[in-house]
Amino acid sequence: MTEIQTPLKETTDIIIDEGGEALKLCYQCGLCTGVCPWNRLTSFMVRKVIHKAQMGLVDFESDEIWRCFGCKACVDRCPRGVEIPYVMRALRRVVMEVGAGIVPHSLRITEKNTSAVGNPLGEPPDKRMDWAKDLGVKTFARGTEILYFPCCYQTYDPPTRKAAVATVNILKKANVDFGIPDNNVVCCGESIRKAGAESLWQRLTKTNIAIFTELGVKKILVTSPHCYHTFKDEYPELGGNYEIVHLSEYLAELIKEGRLKFSKPLVKKVTYHDSCCLGRWQGIYDEHRQILASIPGLEFAEMRDTREYALCCGGCAGRLWLETKKGERPSELRLEQVFELEADILAVSCPYCMANFNDGIISMGKTEVVEIKDIAELVAEAL
Ligand code: SF4
Ligand code: SF4
After folding, report:
1. Which pLDDT belongs to residue 1?
2. Is the distance from the beta carbon of residue 34 to the nearest atom of ligand 1 less than 6 Å?
């Protein structure tokens, strides 16, 4: 016998209040489920989650709340333009902010770290800029043209940090007037906001905006698509308005203007992974390909599932901080596409992609097969 369930309007109203308004548009066609990367690996019926949210029958203790990577593939396919990642964020806010359900342990630790010391890794804030101490780079002061803001991962995590070091070396070679922040800045908050911790995001954002205002920051260069997204599209919500440039855009411009000239060939076969946050969310696809095409000796090859159809690495929307079981990781599926090409290097332009793919080649025993490098590292090596 079919169980008849009564819609709980109050619950739906709370989800809408937390930013899930878009759920009203859904007419249950199911195209989102068909395109969601989870279903290449296991089963995740996002259409059903939206339906439960419409009915107010969400199980806030279920891991469904935390599944979405925020990859946006479903939004691009949805005939009603339902912004599913924001509906999923609203469900997470009901858990994180309103207190229903259970926050996964690893995410709770990440939230606590970010709240206590201003970075998700729980590293000492007074060591935030230690990565740059031998690079001869100045701290941003009023009047400096560009603030280069590396993400928390790039400041504390040695493999990911290579992109920040390469960026500094490139900017110095091109005689760019730039500075880095001091230790007082905190995480941009993008990931923790998508994980539902709205009040923490607001606190972090107010801290950074106060520092940027004090210093008269106008233009911010970033190497993380996550910093890019929140600085550009979300900081204005709290009064922070700056020109935000991703390194890929800036490098393409420097090369076009002749301010960067390559002198060393890089004789390698390279493919490129479009990060969801820079690709589908921001439409930045061409710059990376232009940069790679301009490096002498480099052979570029496209993977299957590229540009708008790129497969997520699995690290967006707070998923970097959550455990994904072996066999269910989209990063490993993506790496299979790299192995098919027999590429020497997988180029990325996101610290989360780098972290996930580095983990992937270790867990798949393929560290000798392919290297994961940020575009900045490849450019710096060829100068
Ligand atoms: S694709 Fe859009 S309209 Fe169709 S079920 Fe998914 S959210 Fe609803
Ligand atoms: S944003 Fe990506 S991971 Fe999230 S439901 Fe849509 S397709 Fe699935």
Report:
1. 44
2. no
- Domains contained in the chain, CATH given: 9-96 (no CATH), 105-252 (3.40.50), 262-382 (3.40.50)
32 lines ligand 1 (CB under 6 A): yes
pLDDT in tens, 300-355: 999 999 999 999 998 888 888 888 888 889 899 999 999 999 999 999 999 999 99
Q: How far is the CA of 68 from the centre of ligand 1 (A)?
A: 15
Looking from the CA of residue 276, the nearest atom of ligand 2 is 2
pLDDT digits (tens, 9 = 90+) for 170-179: 999 999 999 9
Q: In whole angstroms, give the CA distance from residue 260 to residue 11.
A: 56
pTM for the full predicted model: 0.93
Pocket of ligand 2 (CB under 6 A): 32, 35-38, 46, 68-74, 84-85
Count Cα atoms within 13 angstroms, Cβ side, for 281.
Answer: 24
Cβ neighbours around 10 below 10 Å, total? 9
Q: Is 164 within 8 Å of 223 (Cβ atoms)?
A: yes
Q: How far does residue 77's CA lie from ligand 2's centre (Å)?
A: 11
136 C-alpha to ligand 2 centroid (Å): 42
